[in-house]
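To: structure desk
From: M.T.
Subject: fold request, one chain
Message: Could you run this one when you get a chance? Sequence is below, nothing fancy, just the single chain.
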Amino acid sequence: MIFRLILLFTLVPLIELSLLIELGRHIGLGSTIAIVIVTGVIGAYLAKYEGFKVIAGIRQELGAGKIPAEGLIDGIIILAGGLLLLTPGLLTDSIGFLALIPVSRNYLKQYLKRKFKQKLDSKEIHPFYTIDDDSVS
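Reply: Done. Structure tokens follow.
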């Protein structure tokens, strides 16, 4: 797990930096900076819009006495997409936008649900745990 985190926090910024440098070489520094700013502004608006839409859906489901599981998953994906858009770069912005667009977010949600079910079925994670009375002080 720690190895994956090290790769994530070293390789992703290096790839992002390489992509931005190459893009800057082809279209110029000003255009590259403009792309980063524009994707940030559009991403912030989209994250806000989709976030409020999901919150409204969650409130509606709670008002109807339902558990808003789908809405909560959507909210987590939107939050992750918004965080990815905060980091300047083409790769993270692309993934962030995919997380914010409802059609691609639904595919991502289905994928995550399948992976979570696989982990539950293989007993890699346990949805419930008990606390021994001896360990609680």
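Reply (cont.): Helices lie at 2-27, 29-63, 69-86, 90-100, 102-121. Let me know if you need anything else for the meeting.
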